[in-house]
Amino acid sequence: MVNGLRVSLLGISTAFVFTALIVPPTNPDFDWVVEGNTANSDFGFWADGGGDINGDGYDDLIIGAPGVSHSYVGEGAVYIYYGGPDGLADEPGWVTYGANDSAGYGKCVSIKGDVNADGYADVLIGSHQHRNTKLNEGKVLLFLGGPDGPSYTPFWTMIGGRKGAKLGEAVVLAGDLNNDGYDEVCVGAHGWDDDEVLGDSGNKAGKFWVFPGNEDGISTTPIMECVGIVEDANLGVSMDRAGDVNGDGIDDLHIGGYIFLIGDGMLCTFFGEEEGPDGIPDFMAIGGAWDTSFYAVNLSSAGDVNGDGYQDVVIGAPRYDANGIYQSGKLHIHYGGPEGMDPTIGWTHSGTQYDERWAFNVNDAGDVNHDGYDDLLVGSKYYDTPTDTNAGKAELFLGGPKGPQRNPTWTFIGSGVASTVGNNLCSGGDINGDGFMDIIVTGNEYSGDLDREGIVYAFYGQPQQCNPPTHPSIYFITPNSVTIGWDWLYGAKKYKFYMKRLDGPAPAYSIPTEDSVMTVGGLVPGAHYKAYVTALCDGGWTDKSLVLDFYTPMHKEGVLTNMDVYPTLASQSVHVALGTTTGPVAISIMDLNGNIVYNHQYVIEQSNTVIVINEVADLPAGNYFVIAQSANNKLSKQFIKQ
Questions:
Q1: pLDDT digits (tens, 9 = 90+) for 371-412
Q2: CB-based contacts of 219: which residues, under 8 Å, 6+ apart?
């Protein structure tokens, strides 16, 4: 005990720490599973949820199987499974086929949108290898939703019209990009040759179109069409509705391109406007020529993972050699803001296995635990278990005020060799109407009774029950106030902070807060207090945290007027001389990125005290600042760790 302070300051970190859960927000075991039942069908190559196609109040699921052979070899098939109070139906309620040899029908599908604003989600399907008159020109089909589900006759079709264009390998119901109340349709043809502008150098420049919705369906005249400006740009290889990234009330659009010749990709974000996007990217992110990283071949809106009111974007690079490990994979998140996407990478993570291809697919999970932060889904298609190669893995990372957590809350691993779980994964919306978001995970190369038939799983949401907040710490204390913080608890909707004096009359404090730091004033000098915190998650209030037991200091503090730090070239420790300072002083060490790597509070009882910080020995080499802060001043000095 130093001058009556029983619990001194523990480490303060600018990073939030993952806290374990008693019950995760998604069932660890699948609630529904369907196999392809056709050899080489690639069932589950693409899936989409979150749209109520028949208007019954339950979200539905669409699954693409581009390898199915029905009446034609490799024509492909698309299946719709309707949601209901018991979850997804056992049998599909709607099935259509590609009707063309090797058409690849169902390579990409989308149902999260309503082009004619009739209250029914619509169905958009790509058939990227369809041949009308030209090989692999591709085709896109739009089916309108209704009370009996979609018609079997498409409302609208588009043919690629150019050899090798592969129209439909990426499609999306893009949101309302012109603010007229109708969702738009975006389709890509990443193999499009721009012979008109680039001549022989226009091979695979790529192209995409945006068609506006209206009360009748969609207009056949695009409000935007863009062509890649260089050879092999493959513009339109990926796309997703962006939500509102800049807070102007109009939806925006993400488009990806990938130059296979140099192994570099790019993201282009187009802001929505009253007349529709203007065709000029408002934001671009470039992969940086990572050799064959596949940067932006898959990308997605991340929802609002940091809760600032702006939609974010996640970009996968599944073949990136993270940490020197071949094709272990990596992803980046850029946060939205009032000016649009922040060019600084806000959050990044990577795989750990050889050829794991972490971030093979990335997607927004929605807010699965109702804490006000959207959550993130990541697939690792070729993840290995000790017994099964390429079993695959799907992970759920919860969002929070600093972005997603570092360790996933929920993980599902494939069972069996080449299950390739995580090839595709998405939010299922609310399939069974219980108020919780559900998750869809696929493994298109899965072999059950038939080779490469594919498999799709559904996991239903449930109330998240949390352990108590961890590491409550006294950040700063004076005779009349105390600041206490704790690790951010992912999934917490709010906290309740309790504090009580133990050695005399005083009011007990019970303070609700949405922050993980609390300052309480009006304390009695030299008094004895205890404090703890609880958190509210979907499943109710947690137990109380560790109880802090402390005394407020009595004496009068000397003013912090000077500080010396030596040696300035340090290897094992630094000395902090505080001169005439007495009383509570918080001393921290900050790196050049603004990260607090050390923080302690001291109660200085006499002048000319020198604090020795031996933890410097554990820091990596580099430049650092020592910061000393008292109730009345703040000083800093720099040193170099050798």
A1: 999 999 999 999 999 999 999 999 999 999 999 999 999 999
A2: 211, 212, 213
